[in-house]
Amino acid sequence: MSKIILPAAAAPMGPGGALGPGATQSAVEVRNYFPETWLFELQMTGPDGTYTGEDNIPHTITEWDGSAVCINSQDGIGLSNMTSIKGFQAFFISYTLPISVIRGEEFVVVVSVFNYVDAALPISVNLKDPQGFEVTSDLSDNEICIQPSTSESLKMKLKATTVGSINITVEAGTASSSAVCGDSPVYDGTARDAITQSLEVEVNPCI
């Protein structure tokens, strides 16, 4: 048996695979763990034939299927039944950066927010600890409403100011007010997400 640790940004599962009512998270964990395979390893069992361990579930909405193969010098080979676990949270953010930009160049980051619960989500989107770039667009209107099982996007215009590799962290959380969603029934818990990507800033060759 293995004990699986969900990331801080994930929340408890409720009936039917949805988040339980009132589920909360106390802090944002920046998602940065995206392996293509998971828990492919050798372990020794105890005298009772079981193994207990801890691991972090990858930071994607993915259902992982797996089984165990056991070898014993007396009993031979044993194969467990297939089991599965699904990484899940109320919403996920996603954005794509250019491969590289030139220092002083402005570029647009389109942040998409995907709602995975059965109620509207009022979301506030922000840039965390901007370093190496300036925000040139107005982020005062950074709240959006995402209806159930849909996605919405928000554009941010940035300007690179430092040569080298810079990190851009986008974080989002349920807004303090549900006004942006109007009369739509809204999710009654709190949820957060954050993700960091690197961008290469080059020197302008014409200078």
Automatic annotation (TrEMBL):
Source superkingdom: Eukaryota
Molecular functions per Gene Ontology: endopeptidase inhibitor activity
Span of domain Alpha-2-macroglobulin: 37-127
InterPro entries for this protein: A2M/Complement_sys, Ig-like_fold, Ig_E-set, Macroglobln_a2
Protein known as: Alpha-2-macroglobulin
Source organism: Araneus ventricosus
Gene: A2M_4
